[in-house]
Amino acid sequence: MHLAYPAVLAALLFCTGLYGVLARRNAILVLLSVELMLNAVNLNLVAFDVWLRDTLHAGQALTLFTIAIAAAEIGIGLAIVLAVYRNRGSSAIDRLRDTAETDAAEDLPDHPDDDSVAGSGAGTPGTEDQATAAAGKAKKAEATA
Hints:
Elements lengths: L3 H20 L3 H26 L5 H31 L38 H18 L1
Helix pairs in contact: 1-2, 2-3
């Protein structure tokens, strides 16, 4: 068998996985696309191992390591996706800007020295906003505990 057949198939699988990583919004589908890309790499490793007639079968040994890493990656990835889904109610990647808890920090004014932004002007500017942010962080910590 020619080397071109498995190489072309691996290239098609890798391109399909790359498209899935770039175009999908669901985190689970992105993980499946990464698995597809890893399987394309495994196919290339085994094909070149057979083509080169390696006596140590290094390509097949590397494939076993890649399968082990892929299994660990999918296990940890699914655990992270489930934790994010439980906390946020969605596994859409475009809605998850970052994993930090910045809901209360988004309400803070851009210019804390400006008296007109600080509220009623009573007390130190920004103390009311800092207390609100601290209360929001405490509330988030209770919800995640």
